[in-house]
Specification:
11% strand; alpha+beta; 59% helix; elongated
């Protein structure tokens, strides 16, 4: 009925009254059901394509907005860079141990940490001590070489490897390379970053009236 409705522009109520007494055979009903299911499948595919297109559009808009914001930030300014590092450290950095350290499975976070240590404090990143936390089925030596290459750090710096025995018998996804912890051994940097993040956050909160 929907086919006739769209093809000829006849209202559904009119068609219902016309076909009210029409009785379909089992074959006809089966064919109509098949057509209906095919139409539903096509409609769903179109909906998925539309939603994917809209999603890509929103992602592109977010990227453009982020780039526009970045244009207004002087990333060469060490104070700006240190503030960014402080906020990152507040969320991801070590708080309990008497040294500056950060652990993550995200290469970007660790590379940013190393870059900031070098640019802000002129720290020799070749002195960074590295620690890996891996799952039971991961190859220690292979993973060690992976992180050394990605972070451009000496292989000899990766001295400690911890295996999570709770993962015995479970398979690790190929993209997961464990957690890499970087330790620079300088507690003064940690204190400075945490105080900076704390003061900054409190200042923003106070100004917002919260």
């Amino acid at each position: 009925m929907s086919v006739i409705e769209h093809k000829y522009g006849i209202t559904r109520s009119t068609l219902s009254s016309w076909f009210k007494k029409v009785k379909l055979t089992a074959t006809q009903k089966k064919k109509l059901l098949k057509n209906s299911n095919n139409a539903l499948t096509i409609a769903r595919r179109k909906a998925v394509l539309w939603h994917n297109k809209q999603k890509q559009k929103r992602i592109k808009e977010a990227q453009q907005q982020a780039l526009q914001t970045l244009k207004n930030i002087n990333i060469k300014n060490k104070y700006t860079l240190e503030l960014a590092l402080a906020i990152l450290y507040l969320g991801e950095g070590g708080k309990t141990i008497s040294e500056t350290n950060i652990g993550s499975s995200n290469q970007l976070i660790l590379k940013f940490f190393l870059s900031c240590l070098k640019k802000i404090y002129n720290f020799d990143i070749k002195k960074i001590k590295c620690e890996l936390h891996l799952r039971a089925d991961q190859n220690s030596e292979k993973t060690k070489r992976f992180w050394a290459k990605k972070l451009k750090l000496p292989l000899k710096n990766f001295k400690q490897i911890t295996i999570d025995k709770r993962t015995l018998g479970s398979k690790t996804f190929p993209y997961y390379k464990g957690v890499c912890t970087l330790r620079c051994g300088n507690v003064a940097i940690k204190r400075r970053l945490l105080f900076l993040a704390d003061f900054f956050c409190k200042k923003i909160i106070k100004k917002s009236g919260l």
